[in-house]
Amino acid sequence: MIEHRHLGSSGLKISSLTYGNWLTHGSQVESDIATKCVETALDLGITSFDTADTYANTAAESVLGQALKGQRRESLEIFTKVYWPTGPMGPNDCGLSRKHIMESINGSLKRLQTDYVDLYQAHRFDYATPLEETMQAFADVVHSGKALYIGVSEWKAEEIRRGQELATQMGFRLISSQPQYSMLWRIIEPEVVPTCQELGIGQIVWSPLAEGVLTGKYAPGQEPPAGSRATDHKGGAQMIARWMRDDVLNAVANLKPIADDLGVTMAQMSLAWVLSRPGISAAIIGASRPEQLVENVKATDVTLNDSAMDAIDKAIGDVVERDPAKTASPAKRPC
Hints:
Blueprint: E1 4-6, E2 13-15, E3 17-20, H1 31-43, E4 48-50, H2 59-67, E5 77-82, H3 98-112, E6 117-122, H4 131-143, E7 147-152, H5 157-169, E8 174-177, H6 192-199, E9 202-205, H7 236-240, H8 246-253, H9 256-262, H10 266-275, E10 280-285, H11 290-296, H12 306-316
Parallel strand pairs: 3-4, 3-10, 4-5, 5-6, 6-7, 7-8, 8-9, 9-10
Antiparallel strand pairs: 1-2
Helix pairs in contact: 1-2, 1-11, 2-3, 3-4, 4-5, 5-6
């Protein structure tokens, strides 16, 4: 059964494996398959669903909203985000200005077919908008009942601290951070995680399988399997390209004997590793087929002892990225 964890120090509980539809709904998979994946997630005990207005230029929210139609709303935790461009890419179609936030939350609610979202997240930090303006807009979104909680994604530790100070002054709190995190990408460990733990903010991490590389499906010197993310030219191939290096793939191959000894798949071991780390409230998993969810949810039953954790660190060695400076938002607003 899926474990439910408190999101930071808030009273909100979310499923430790959260279903995300980036690069899938409205883009990589057809709507009927997307609906089957959502139904499977619900059957497996996943109650938390993460999306964003920018995914497939708003189509992903619409697909998720339709897939969840008819479910008891109070039994779900629905997350979405605002920042990246939507619509025709007009001058106010992105960022964290009051105008864009207010228009975006209304659009998201319509597409998701709900009166409120449980968590509304700043998808990046906006250097072109005063932080006070952004946080006041979020305060008004919360006070209007359109979002119950506010979070951030890919903010630096000092940005999170400043945001929390302002949020507290305005009568709400930041409760979540959504950074990239996996065995291979650990840049949040030195600064973001300790700051968030101090401030009562939980991590909902994305790409815990490093775009699928940690499943072991990609072999050094070989063409990627047909139908895999590395062959998806709608966006998946571009995202995974940074991991498709022989040094990384050779290091990942070293993980297979460890997983075999544990009697689990590499994906299950990789997800279990993430869920065991300090400060982690949930890991986001996606799926292009329901069977992927069935297998990956088994990670919640995997326990990694100290010996296994040490073996993992030794196996992947120096390919791990740890530089906290790589936590960054675009210096220039993208519209």
